[in-house]
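Morning. Coffee machine broken again, so started the prediction first thing and wrote up yesterday's gels while waiting. Chain of 178 residues, entered below exactly as on the submission form.
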Amino acid sequence: MAGVTTVRDLGSEGAGYTDVGLKQAINKGVVPGPRMLVAGPALVATGSYNPKGAPEWHLPKGAQEADGHDDLIRATRDQIGRGADWVKVYADYRWGPDRQARPTYTEQELRLVVEVAESSGRRVVAHASTPEAMARAIRAGVRTIEHGDGGTLEIFALMAQRGVGFCPTLAAGDAISQ
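Came back before lunch.
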């Protein structure tokens, strides 16, 4: 087979574990495709992630809400059990005043997700665009930072020092601004 040999799909954004199902179908030879490394739904802090509507509405989320020690352990293990190769966390999101991006998880919470995921041989990736969220995620032990729009020289030096990969996703920021 020539062409794309491996893809990393970091979040199904409302499609549940469809990425895991496609990966399994490819692995079983049901459909042709590249090797897939998948994350399933991302972990998000309660109240931080869209969509939002009237407070009395309970709209479906494109990610899995989890907070605090016990809930983060359960959610991380649940994702691993459902077939995730990577665990994705939203280390920040547009939930600050005037919808500014602000950190969502503490460094301790991020470190807990990393500890649980790595105990099973999985790695953690962080959606992070603010310097503070990037720093927390890097110090917590995530393996890659996605987006990183607000990265500074100090942040990129810390990433290099800790061996953290950088995956800038320029189209995502452009799409949101439009």
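The two ends are 38 Å apart (CA to CA). Going to sketch it on the whiteboard this afternoon.
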